[in-house]
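User: Hi! I have a protein structure encoded as tokens and I'd like to know what sequence might fold into it. I'm fairly new to this, so please keep things simple.
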């Protein structure tokens, strides 16, 4: 007769998946026409385990000046915009500020709406883009 041991191991990941499936996509603006355009996007988080305390932060990006987010054209013109956490645009998310702070449940997707607004004004013609880093801390 012979005997041995069988090693049994497992790894349980303590991870979260952060995505931004719906970005902020503004419609075309007419140059020289005052506008106050608003759009909606989303940020989604799925954690493998419940998290009692998380924060989701929105950074300013490369084109931020002082406390203002800006899209930039290929001609280096800037188009200001704000991001808010509410449809009424009353709660602006500051550069590096929290979109969300609180607890998350396990496995269930948590979907957070973000709202973008281009302030009323006239802007140079061009195609403007910008990238905002979204950071999840848990």
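Assistant: Happy to help. Inverse folding works backwards from shape to sequence: for each of the 138 positions I chose a residue that suits the local structure. Here it is:
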């Amino acid at each position: 007769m012979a005997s041995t041991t069988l090693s049994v191991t497992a790894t349980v990941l303590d991870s979260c998946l952060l995505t931004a499936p719906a970005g902020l996509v503004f419609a075309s603006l007419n140059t020289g026409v005052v506008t106050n355009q608003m759009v909606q996007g989303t940020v989604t988080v799925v954690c493998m385990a419940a998290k009692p305390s998380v924060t989701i932060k929105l950074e300013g990006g490369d084109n931020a000046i002082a406390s203002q987010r800006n899209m930039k054209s290929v001609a280096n013109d800037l188009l200001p915009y704000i991001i808010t956490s509410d449809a009424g645009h009353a709660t602006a998310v500051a550069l590096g500020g929290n979109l969300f702070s609180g607890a998350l449940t396990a496995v269930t997707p948590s979907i957070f709406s973000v709202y973008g607004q281009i302030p009323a004004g006239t802007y140079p013609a061009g195609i403007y883009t910008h990238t905002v880093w979204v950071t999840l801390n848990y």
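A useful reference point when you look it over: Residues 33 and 110 are 38 Å apart (CA to CA). Feel free to ask if any position seems puzzling.
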